[in-house]
Backbone:
């Protein structure tokens, strides 16, 4: 038998008071008694579900797992209570957003799902559910959640349920922002189109749309403009941001967005009006928010874009000043350090001073500390090596640049910029290194860049490479492919205020060469049209006058029209007047005079042309052009002055400027000399000379 004393002690053991030293959570026996024992509460009048829910919310911070169990207990007591599920979903969504914890947002999503099973047509619940999924999708870059959010918004937009126009406008805004975020992953223009449609519908519902709405609307319009190069979308983005500024001209964010849109548009058109307007926007932005890093950095980007395009050192130095301002407010901005390095490299190339490269190395070293294994670091390292290679004309530095970019590709194989930089640098090295493999390598990297991204610069670089290969091999098919890529590049730059004259000249050269290979005068005519466009932009450009004169000479050789030759001679005169010390211009001028004399009947004019041609060729020799010896020998053959002809041809052999023997044997201008006793001895001399080489 158990002693009575022990039993009494057990009976006198004090019971814990409510709230004192009790166990937390639903496992506490006291809590169970509170919830279920009718001695404590009137079960008919007391709302147990509300009590449990309140306690769960109260203790969520201290013990989330136990609080969630209380949520489930409350839901078990009222499985058909839609408001309870929505209350739990709202709490979990709010807590998950505040603490940025994904699992609570996903749990909130489940609660919304349960609530909507009870009441499928609840408009507000669908909107809140979409908000929950949208936040989780953007915060953790989860595309699946974004698409789920889209489904919910699509249902909400179909329901409407008597929602006010203002509420529907806000819903369309959410839809537009959601589709813009989906585009960031999908890169499908359809998604951008859907975003623009959503914003447009919302804006049409009510008057007095907020500035923030218009700023959001401008973003997909700008993205669409960048992808399609369609100025209509740029104008749409500008109109949206103008509406935002008209709502609140004291908001620095609107001015920054306005300046950014105009900067992007300037990069497409290079219209100075766009530069001026963008510059004014950034002036206003830094006045309103002088300590905003983005305002200073984006202003520097504008100045860098214009300065690099125009070779304007003042703008580049001004861009550096803006970078220094931005650095005061954010010392670890990667974007800022990248831009700063690019500006310094371009300054070094334009002003040809090594000090800018040294400063670029210092900024780049700071960037390496922040992001040592970033592909951008290797891109900039390569750019710096390539700039030094151009400055010193050093092949080894170019190859060091290529090595740096290849390291960058090992980190990010999808970087189209790195593929392009390697390919375009191989094009440069092909002029310094005789290795026949280099053009093939250049073609490999440039075609990869073009497949990854559509950029006119990539097409130009590839077209230039193909033209070079075609000229060397005399390959018509390769040259036609080059011309196709030139045309594609020009089509991509259709919005430019004016095309680059050097690219027009390169295109004209390719067309001129194709005319030589096909004997089709239409190619020469197209080449002349390209050069005319270039001369409209730069009428004093000596090289353009020279190129135009050469193309017209080639056209004259195929048509035998003296008027075309006279036109060519007028351009030669302009070119020589502007650059009298250019031996190549003098040589081509002399050759054009000889060609014109060939189609004229014997006359005083013909003799004058021959004498002038002799003068031009002698002048070219005096200016150091050794190729002129051979052509002067040909002229003396035409004039039947064989002693002089042989003398000049022997000099050409001595200076190794004579063409291959096959060309010499087929040269019509040497027909007179070929009939003389001198020719056989000359051929033997050429053969022995070229064999020894």
Residues:
């Amino acid at each position: 038998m158990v002693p009575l004393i022990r039993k009494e002690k057990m009976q006198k053991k004090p019971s814990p008071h409510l709230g004192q030293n009790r166990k937390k959570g639903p496992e506490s026996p006291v809590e169970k008694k509170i919830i279920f024992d009718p001695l404590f509460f009137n079960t008919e009048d007391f709302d147990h579900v509300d009590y449990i829910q309140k306690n769960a919310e109260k203790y969520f911070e201290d013990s989330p797992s136990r609080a969630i169990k209380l949520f489930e207990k409350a839901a078990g007591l009222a499985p058909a209570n839609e408001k309870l599920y929505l209350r739990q979903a709202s709490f979990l969504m709010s807590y998950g957003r505040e603490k940025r914890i994904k699992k609570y947002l996903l749990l909130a999503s489940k609660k919304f799902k349960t609530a909507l099973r009870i009441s499928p047509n609840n408009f507000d619940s669908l909107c809140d559910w979409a908000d929950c999924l949208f936040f989780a999708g953007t915060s953790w870059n989860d595309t699946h959640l974004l698409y789920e959010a889209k489904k919910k918004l699509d249902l909400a937009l179909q329901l409407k349920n008597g929602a006010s126009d203002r509420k529907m406008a806000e819903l369309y805004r959410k839809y537009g922002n959601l589709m813009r975020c989906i585009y960031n992953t999908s890169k499908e223009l359809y998604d951008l189109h859907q975003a623009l449609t959503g914003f447009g519908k919302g804006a049409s519902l009510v008057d007095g749309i907020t500035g923030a709405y218009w700023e959001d609307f401008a973003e997909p319009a700008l993205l669409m403009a960048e992808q399609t190069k369609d100025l209509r979308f740029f104008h749409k983005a500008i109109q949206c941001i103008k509406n935002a500024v008209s709502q609140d001209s004291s908001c620095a964010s609107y001015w920054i967005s306005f300046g950014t849109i105009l900067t992007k548009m300037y990069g497409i058109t290079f219209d100075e009006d766009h530069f001026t307007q963008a510059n004014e926007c950034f002036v206003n932005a830094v006045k309103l928010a002088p300590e905003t890093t983005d305002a200073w950095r984006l202003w520097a980007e504008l100045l860098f874009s214009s300065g690099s395009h125009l070779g304007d050192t003042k703008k580049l130095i001004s861009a550096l000043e803006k970078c220094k301002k931005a650095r005061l407010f954010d010392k670890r901005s990667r974007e800022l350090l990248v831009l700063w390095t690019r500006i310094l490299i371009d300054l070094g190339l334009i002003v040809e001073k090594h000090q800018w490269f040294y400063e670029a190395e210092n900024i780049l070293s700071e960037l390496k500390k922040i992001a040592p294994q970033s592909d951008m670091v290797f891109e900039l390292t390569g750019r710096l090596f390539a700039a030094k290679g151009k400055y010193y004309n050093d092949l080894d530095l170019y190859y060091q640049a290529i090595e740096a970019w290849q390291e960058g590709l090992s980190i990010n194989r999808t970087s189209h910029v790195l593929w392009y930089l390697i390919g375009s640098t191989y094009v440069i090295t092909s002029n310094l290194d005789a290795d026949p493999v280099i053009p093939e390598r250049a073609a490999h990297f440039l075609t990869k860049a073009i497949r990854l991204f559509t950029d006119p610069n990539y097409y130009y670089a590839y077209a230039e490479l193909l033209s070079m290969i075609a000229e060397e091999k005399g390959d018509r098919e390769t040259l036609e492919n080059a011309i196709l890529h030139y045309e594609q590049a020009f089509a991509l730059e259709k919005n430019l205020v004016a095309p680059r004259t050097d690219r027009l000249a390169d295109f004209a050269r390719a067309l001129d060469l194709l005319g030589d290979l096909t004997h089709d005068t239409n190619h020469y005519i197209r080449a002349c049209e390209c050069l005319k466009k270039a001369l409209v932009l730069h009428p004093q450009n000596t090289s353009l006058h020279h190129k135009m004169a050469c193309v017209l000479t080639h056209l004259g050789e195929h048509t035998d029209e003296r008027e075309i030759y006279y036109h060519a001679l007028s351009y030669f005169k302009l070119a020589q007047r502007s650059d009298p010390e250019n031996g190549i211009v003098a040589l081509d001028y002399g050759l054009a005079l000889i060609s014109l004399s060939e189609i004229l009947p014997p006359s005083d004019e013909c003799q004058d042309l021959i004498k002038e041609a002799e003068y031009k060729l002698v002048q070219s020799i005096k200016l150091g052009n050794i190729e002129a010896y051979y052509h002067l020998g040909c002229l003396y053959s035409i004039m039947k002055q064989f002693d002089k002809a042989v003398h000049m041809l022997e000099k050409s052999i001595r200076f190794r400027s004579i063409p291959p023997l096959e060309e010499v044997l087929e040269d019509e201008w040497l027909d007179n000399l070929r009939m003389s006793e001198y020719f056989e001895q000359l051929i033997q001399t050429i053969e022995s000379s070229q064999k020894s080489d």
Summary: Residues 1-46 have pLDDT under 50 and may be disordered.
